[in-house]
Design goal:
alpha/beta; globular; single chain
């Protein structure tokens, strides 16, 4: 055996190895049941022990030694303060004490004789210099391949553990304080709303106490979400002052103030006032109407109109108001009539009389006594209802059902957001100052569709103002994060132990994330299909009894199932076993999934113009460039693994379709699994395979069909079965595929648009004979194929399934029991009494419940009947966005795997947040411990990047597409810097040759044709709008109000540009409305979620004022999408506002990530507009010293235009 790095082991004196133990590490070790901490200390006391040291990772080392017939393995971390080690032991750590195994010394190991000393973490002790020398020696080692794999496995375990902790938190029941009765939204949808009980923040209590005391005396409660009702004057004079003086580093007032208008239907007096065009004031009692006039000449006009309104004139009336400051003593010496003296006991009184002169006489008496300036009077005509007609309803407290739909449509055209509550009968909107309030209120009022109970311009009106916690993430923000995570999930009410299991839970609908907030949750109850109606009716029956509901609970069983699938996939490679899907198809995956250098290289010569290359060209289905062709050849000829990098717009979908075609062309009987993180990516690739000249490729789609685009639905197993038999119903719901709130729209399905029917039509079309002798027969044949009866449908369905060779599925669905059940239904020809899909799920269930399950069930050996899930090739797209375990799920089924991604774009995120941030918000011991173990590499590196960037991976199995077909060459020049290490990124030949073609029908034209002096011309495709203004903190996010203003101006200038209207009209010629919207939409993206929220009003204004649709989202959410025009709001500035003071700022936060910048800039096809602080970004260097923003700005300056926002505003700001 060869020994390395062991020159010191023969020294007489062993090195003193100091290892510090924290109390937690001691207790964890004691729980491992292999020996206690005290026993370990006793075993090693005063002994020289041969220790084997390895470098576990850049921060941790590992020591292994043997003592008392036990093997001890400790993970160590160097302590700079005390120059010794501390041990890392937690609940997920391997057993410290285990059975003896052979220890070898190699180039990855340092071997030393040591005296091991275990001491308390806080004990004062100074180690010897030799220990520091040993530490430095270990640091110089390479990490062993075994440790690399162990490190990778730990990362994968952390992903699963993190998701499990978050799921446990999200699954907790939510306490409610009340609920509203369900309301009908439209014929296919009901909604149910509950009020939530929320925790309170201590910070809110403190400020509430201060403003309730002298000198403010405002007894207005602050709600748990930080909202408070205040008069407009008190917002500025009290709340803002207190925050600025005492809470400036903890709290801030949200600039958006909410105005909630209580509305009622117009009363009869409102309506009559309207008939007079509001010239007269009208009031009513229970059954009479008063119309106030200015002079008697108006009487006849009023009487005539009131007669038409079914009222008749009864008498005159007058209201008098006396100014009592005149100090007149009322007595009979004043010569006042008794009836007037009685009335004068009050300063305001009224009098009715049949004769107008009688009222006039009373007025004369009053001014004689008090003086004309002290007496105010109003005269009215008093009307009663006509006795001929039916009584008129004077008041109507509720609106008609149609009113709410109509009013929402009217609000839709407004250039600001409104929120309508039917149950509360309110209309709410947000404003920033008094002028904004006044203009928005007047616009709402001008609709004249309802009565507003109290005008917000009244001094006593109270507005909803929000206080945000800025020192940390508030309870509200954490709760809203959680709401976004579980939006679309089913909720239920638990009726308690007294009910049997099936009747215990009452489903209350799916969480509507868009209409829910911190105080209220809204649930959608669909009511169209029979299953929906059955479930919703069950809820209606339950709620009719007006039960006391204390909690509502999210049903996250699908997510829980997904975690179990991830664990199963991990076990397949770490602990493979014989049984039902308990080991991977390719057993070498356990090595190359962690270490891509273990994948077998390709030995064939795949160079250009060699035999393989030319063979591929001869049979290409689609047009490929050389880099795509190289990638396809790599995929076709690899044995274990191919890694393909597809930068933005480089035709990944084309390559996937070509790969599948080439594989099926050679062998139609092989099975291919195509997976991706999104259904859309799978559906797009399948659509590319359709070709009228062949019927070789027969795709089938697994998963919940309601989640597919129409392109994917035609391949869905469910649709095909409903085409054969419209009564077919499946009980298979893919557990992890949660419906979003956008999915509540129910679309009528065209079951004839399915892959089997299309296959039949193509067969008929390809069978046409030119010989007239057979023309009639062929016509009948074509008709039969186009309109098949049930028997023929069944025949062709069975044939299609028998020869199906491509399965499409999302990556996360690939581990589900329903995926396995669908696989059996398609690829297993078993014919028995029990349906094969159900048998598979039964077998999976039994194998989970019973360890050592032998396969027998109802006289059938399921393990013999069920086919193992195997595919010749698994293709995984969008791999860089998949978490490591999710990537593994489908890979276990493939003999070989082709993984496609782009590690220069964003890695996977957990509900749009980093794992660390999400875990820290859970505030549990386990989550905090796991969060502390997550380093930057863990968060920012996808498994795809680890595989393709492995220094020893064979170049024969990795490829990069280097030609893109999305962006104009000038936009390409902005982002190509991100791909220099891969050989660069250039526009494909069709883009180079056609980008400036003014014919927009040319699919490779990237022309826009806009012209506006001092802003844009047809040759400009990149613009930087420099906003030299400060950013602001918004909770834990950032906003820049000046950039919002700049974005609005940019959209206005685009609208104003010559050629823009023609450009927008051009797309309307397309019959596909989705395509029209996609081409017309402007993509508006930002690095920060709160900035996106603030940009919503800009998007509304663009749509309603300029008729420009806008797709708004964060950069992370926009990954994978593209639009003709993209506007990026960067937010960050070299100045920031803190507590009303403008300060210098040097931090660009999120924006420092080259991956995020790459994604932001690479979404645009024709025009890229960046709005941001040029000076701030120009100086920035990334961790490798690259001036990524300087390169962007310089390129835009050279080939586009850099323009100052202030200059644009000066030139165009007031020009409407």
């Amino acid at each position: 055996m060869a020994y390395h790095n062991n020159e010191d082991i023969f020294d007489d004196e062993p090195i003193e190895l100091i290892i510090r133990f924290e109390n937690k590490a001691v207790s964890t070790l004691d729980k491992q049941n292999k020996g206690s901490f005290e026993e370990l200390k006793r075993w090693i006391e005063n002994k020289s022990i041969k220790c084997f040291f390895q470098k576990k990772n850049e921060d941790e080392h590992k020591v292994t030694f043997q003592i008392e017939n036990k093997q001890i393995e400790l993970v160590l971390k160097w302590q700079e303060q005390t120059f010794d080690y501390k041990t890392i032991i937690n609940q997920k750590s391997k057993n410290v004490i285990s059975e003896i195994q052979q220890l070898n010394s190699d180039e990855y190991t340092v071997t030393e004789n040591c005296k091991v000393k275990l001491i308390d973490f806080k004990k004062p002790y100074r180690s010897q210099r030799e220990l520091e020398d040993l530490y430095n020696k270990i640091c110089k080692l390479e990490i062993s391949p075994k440790s690399e794999i162990e490190n990778q496995q730990e990362i994968w375990d952390k992903w699963i553990e993190a998701q499990k902790l978050i799921l446990n938190k999200n699954s907790q029941p939510l306490e409610i304080v009340k609920y509203d009765q369900p309301i009908n939204i439209h014929e296919s949808l009901y909604q149910f709303r509950v009020k939530l009980k929320q925790e309170e923040n201590l910070e809110f209590k403190n400020i509430e106490k201060i403003i309730s005391e002298e000198p403010f005396n405002l007894n207005e409660r602050i709600n748990p979400d930080g909202s408070q009702l205040l008069r407009f004057k008190d917002i500025n004079d009290v709340l803002d002052r207190v925050i600025q003086k005492d809470f400036t580093t903890i709290l801030e007032r949200n600039k958006q103030i909410a105005c909630v208008l209580k509305i009622t239907p117009f009363s009869i007096s409102n309506k009559i006032s309207k008939t007079f065009n509001n010239r007269f004031i009208v009031s009513n009692n229970s059954d009479t109407i008063n119309v106030y006039i200015n002079n008697l000449s108006q009487k006849q006009e009023v009487v005539d109109k009131m007669f038409l309104e079914q009222f008749y004139f009864k008498t005159y009336g007058a209201e008098f108001e006396i100014d009592w400051h005149c100090n007149i003593k009322l007595d009979k010496n004043l010569n006042i009539s008794d009836h007037l003296l009685r009335r004068l006991r009050h300063n305001v009184f009224s009098r009715k009389h049949n004769e107008f002169d009688s009222l006039k006489k009373m007025y004369q008496e009053l001014i004689t006594i008090f003086g004309k300036d002290k007496v105010k009077s109003k005269v009215y005509l008093h009307f009663d209802q006509s006795r001929v007609n039916e009584p008129i309803r004077f008041e109507n407290s509720s609106f008609k059902n149609t009113f709410w739909t109509e009013i929402k449509r009217e609000f839709y055209s407004f250039d600001f957001d409104t929120n309508v509550s039917e149950s509360q009968q309110t209309v709410a909107f947000e404003f920033v100052d008094y002028s904004d309030l006044k203009s928005k209120y007047e616009k709402i009022k001008s609709l004249n569709r309802f009565n507003i109970m109290l005008s917000p311009l009244n001094d006593d009106f109270k507005f909803k103002v929000k206080i945000d916690i800025i020192a940390k993430k508030s309870k509200k923000e954490e709760f809203l994060d959680k709401t976004r995570q579980i939006a679309g999930s089913e909720f239920y009410i638990d009726r308690g132990d007294k009910f049997e299991y099936k009747k215990r839970q009452v489903v209350i609908g799916n969480l509507n994330g868009r209409n829910s907030d911190y105080n209220y949750y809204v649930f959608n109850l669909p009511y169209k299909w029979s299953d929906d109606k059955r479930q919703t009716d069950k809820f209606f029956k339950f709620i009719e009894e007006e039960p006391k509901i204390k909690f509502v609970t999210p049903n996250l069983r699908g997510d829980q199932a997904k975690i179990s699938w991830l664990n199963e996939a991990m076990n397949k490679i770490t602990n493979p076993k014989e049984g039902l899907d308990l080991k991977p198809v390719n057993e070498k995956i356990k090595d190359f999934i962690f270490d891509s250098s273990k994948a077998e290289e390709i030995y064939k010569n795949l160079s250009k113009d060699e035999e393989e290359w030319n063979e591929l060209k001869r049979h290409e289905l689609l047009i490929l460039n050389d880099s795509q062709r190289k990638a396809v050849l790599s995929a076709l000829n690899c044995t274990d693994l191919a890694l393909l990098q597809g930068p933005p717009g480089t035709g990944k979908t084309t390559v996937i379709a070509e790969m599948i075609w080439q594989m099926v062309r050679v062998n139609q009987e092989q099975k291919i699994l195509l997976t991706s993180e999104t259904n859309l990516a799978v559906d797009n690739a399948l659509e590319k395979l359709l070709n009228k000249n062949h019927t070789l490729v027969k795709p089938i789609r697994f998963g919940r069909a309601s989640k597919f685009e129409e392109e994917g639905k035609k391949y869905a197993f469910e649709r095909i079965m409903k085409w054969v038999d419209e009564k077919f119903e499946t009980d298979d719901n893919y557990e992890n595929e949660v419906l979003e709130e956008d999915d509540v729209e129910i679309v009528e399905e065209d079951f004839y648009n399915n892959s089997v029917q299309l296959w039949m039509r193509r067969i008929a079309d390809n069978s046409q004979q030119s010989n007239p002798k057979y023309s009639d027969i062929m016509k009948d044949w074509a008709f039969e194929m186009a309109q098949p009866d049930k028997e023929m449908k069944t025949l062709f369905k069975d044939k299609y399934f028998k020869y199906a060779n491509v399965v499409g599925s999302t990556s996360s669905s690939a581990g589900s029991p329903n995926f396995g059940a669908d696989y059996q239904r398609i690829f297993n020809d078993y014919e028995g009494e029990l349906e094969i899909g159900q048998l598979y799920k039964r077998a999976k269930n039994l194998s989970k419940k019973h360890i050592g399950f032998n396969g027998w069930y109802k006289g059938t050996n399921l393990l013999e009947v069920i086919k193992p899930i195997e595919f010749d090739t698994v293709i995984t797209d969008e791999a860089s966005k998949a978490t490591p375990p999710e990537l593994l799920l489908p890979m276990c089924f493939g003999r070989k795997n082709i993984i496609i991604g782009d590690h220069r774009q964003l890695p996977p995120m957990l509900h749009d947040k980093t794992f660390k941030e999400t875990l820290e918000s859970l505030e549990t011991t386990e989550s905090k411990e796991l969060a502390s173990e997550i380093d930057k590499d863990f968060v920012e590196t996808s498994q795809f990047e680890r595989l393709i960037m492995h220094p020893k991976v064979s170049t024969t199995i990795k490829s990069t597409f280097n030609e893109q077909y999305r962006m104009h060459p000038k936009i390409n020049n902005v982002i190509k810097q991100f791909y220099l290490d891969e050989g660069g990124l250039e526009p494909g030949k069709p883009i180079k040759e056609n980008a400036n073609d003014t014919n927009l029908n040319n699919p490779f034209s990237r022309h826009h044709g806009f012209l506006l002096n001092k802003f844009i011309n047809p040759d400009i495709h990149t613009i930087w709008v420099n906003v030299d203004e400060p950013e602001e903190l918004s909770g834990t996010s950032r906003i820049n109000n000046y950039e919002i203003e700049a974005v609005e101006l940019v959209i206005k200038l685009l609208k104003k540009s010559n050629g823009f209207e023609e450009y927008m009209k051009h797309w309307q010629n397309n019959n596909d409305q989705n395509k029209v919207q996609e081409e017309q939409e402007i993509g508006l993206i930002s690095f920060y979620g709160h900035q996106v929220s603030r940009l919503k009003e800009v998007a509304l204004k663009a749509r309603n004022k300029y008729n420009i649709p806008v797709r708004l989202n964060t950069v992370d959410k926009f990954q994978g999408m593209e639009r003709n025009i993209i506007i990026v709001s960067t937010v960050r500035s070299d100045k920031k506002i803190e507590n009303g003071i403008t300060k210098t700022n040097k931090d660009i936060g999120f924006a420092k990530s080259p991956k995020r910048l790459n994604v932001a800039l690479s979404r645009a096809k024709r025009l890229l507009i960046v709005v941001g602080n040029k000076n701030m970004f120009y100086r920035f260097k990334d961790k490798n010293g690259n001036q990524i923003y300087k390169n962007v700005i310089d390129t835009i300056n050279d080939e586009g235009i850099v323009v100052d926002f202030k200059n644009l505003k000066k030139e165009f700001g007031d020009d409407e």
